[in-house]
Design brief:
Shape: globular
Oligomer: single chain
CATH architecture of the largest domain: Orthogonal Bundle
Order of helices and strands: EEEHEHHHHHHHHHHHHHHHEEEEE
Number of helices: 16
CATH class of the largest domain: Mainly Alpha
Strand order of the largest sheet: 8-7-6-5-9
CATH superfamily of the largest domain: Hypothetical protein af1432
Strand content: 5-15%
Largest sheet: 5 strands, antiparallel
CATH topology of the largest domain: Hypothetical protein af1432
Structural class: alpha+beta
Distance between the termini: 56 Å
Number of strands: 9
Helix content: 40-55%
Number of domains: 3
Length: 441
């Protein structure tokens, strides 16, 4: 171990220490950003909840190395100083409030403007089962409308903004009542590409993200409209470009990138389109490290709605099959986004988006530690790794005679407990022959 790195019990932590490693995977904690200076007691309390020991870098942080080593040397002799990764029980905590405070300390203006008291957040007012039919109807209606919208834009090169808003309002209403139902619809529809529409799904992820951030109704409508219109510029590209199978050639790719500017031109020529919607279309291919297009904007130069559109569009692309790759499962897509953290996307944007959709999204297929498998029914806002699961396959992956619901948040995750149960993997759509479309039939 590097001389600057020491291991401490979480009970011995204090503000000013810089945490670089935990005794469990980062993805199993709220600290998805990996590496931070402890700033207050609230962060220490959360570390105590999830970890027994952490690794501190004495060369980083505002606390002097000598002070840290004094605390280390004061421990009882013979204690184990090596970190070991394992599955401890992740108790629920004040995660959302803590993250909001953290984002304020990051001085991210667009998050600060949306930060509200916990009481102002949208409450869940419907169960997934009760909301399922309304979510399906709203999603399918939006898909049908999108097809007619594209035909109309091809003729007029204009967007009927009022019609778009009217169509997306039932989608927003359903998401506000219970976002898990609409997430289930998306992953169910991915089973049959003919019933799926990436534009509508991306709009849903955008609205869900806005709901999580407590955006007001007007801003949620702008997110829905912008998400639906992200790729309307493709209408200005040659039809044979969209028919290309496999990856585009470099010259084809450069030509395809023109769809962003074409989309912005269509919106500018339309009546009453909000600037936030234009920002979404203009910036949905930009990346925080400047590697995106068309303007190679970095994080601070990209409008907030553009950042939301970019990560929502990227997530849906990863979880959808296309001409040159198969669909990733929700968990694999979440891990991929986490690897992009600090590069293509800002850390705080990735963290909050994964809080929105969940590490194992509603409607996705998961496998548990006892070998059983099923579909995620509902998220656990206090711990994204402990959702409600409907078990449909036994330990041999054979169909269960009677499906069983497991509320993982109520079960121990510690492997030493006889009743311990946790998710070991997320899988692509259709794995084990599970069809999430049949859950609420």
């Amino acid at each position: 171990m590097d001389a600057s790195l020491i291991v401490l019990d979480t009970k011995d932590l204090t503000s000013g220490m810089y945490v670089v490693e935990l005794d469990r995977p980062w993805l199993e904690t709220p600290f998805v950003f990996q590496g931070f200076e402890i700033s207050d007691k609230a962060e220490i309390d959360i570390l105590k909840t999830y970890c027994e020991r952490v690794c501190i870098d004495t060369d980083r942080g505002s606390l002097q190395p000598a002070q840290i080593r004094e605390l280390r040397d004061a421990e009882l002799p013979g204690q184990t100083r090596a970190l070991k990764s394992g599955r401890g029980q992740a108790a629920p905590g004040r995660i959302r409030s803590w993250f909001r405070d953290l984002l304020l300390r990051y001085d991210i203006a667009w998050f600060r403007s949306r930060a509200q008291d916990e009481s102002a957040a949208y409450p869940i007012v419907s169960t997934v089962r009760r909301e399922a039919d309304r979510a399906v109807a709203a999603f399918d209606a939006a898909c049908a409308f999108h097809a007619s919208l594209l035909r109309a834009i091809s003729r007029t090169v204009r967007v009927d903004l009022n019609a778009v808003r009217q169509t997306m309002r039932p989608v927003i209403d359903s998401i506000l009542r219970n976002p898990d139902a609409m997430a289930w619809v998306i992953f169910s529809r991915k089973m049959t590409p003919a019933d799926y529409n990436r534009a509508v799904a991306t709009a849903v992820w955008c609205v869900m993200f806005g709901r999580h951030l407590a955006f007001d109704r007007q801003r949620l409508e702008e997110l829905a409209v912008g998400g639906l219109l992200l790729d309307i510029g493709n209408l200005g590209l040659p039809a044979d470009l969209g028919a290309v199978k496999g990856k585009l050639a470099p010259d084809e790719l450069e030509f395809q990138k023109k769809h962003v500017d074409i989309g912005v031109e269509i919106l500018r020529a339309s009546q009453g389109v909000p600037e936030n919607v234009i920002d979404m279309v203009r910036c949905h291919q930009e990346r925080a490290d400047g590697s995106g297009y068309p303007a190679a904007l970095t994080a601070n130069a990209t409008p907030s709605f553009g950042r939301i559109a970019a990560i929502a569009d990227c997530y849906d692309a990863m979880t959808s099959a296309n001409a040159y790759s198969s669909a990733s499962g929700g968990y694999d897509a979440a891990r991929a986004l986490n690897e992009m953290r600090g590069q293509e996307f800002q850390p705080e944007v990735v963290e909050q988006f994964l809080r929105t959709v969940g590490m194992f999204p509603t409607g996705s297929i998961v496998e548990l530690s006892d070998g059983t498998a099923g579909v995620v029914l509902e998220q656990n806002p206090d711990n994204a790794l402990r959702p409600k699961v409907l078990l449909l396959r036994d330990g041999s992956h054979e169909p269960l005679q009677r499906p069983e619901i497991k509320q993982l948040r109520d079960l121990p995750a510690d492997a030493t407990s006889r009743k311990a149960l946790w998710i070991v993997d997320g899988h692509p759509h259709g794995k084990f022959g599970i069809d999430p479309r049949k859950i609420f039939k």
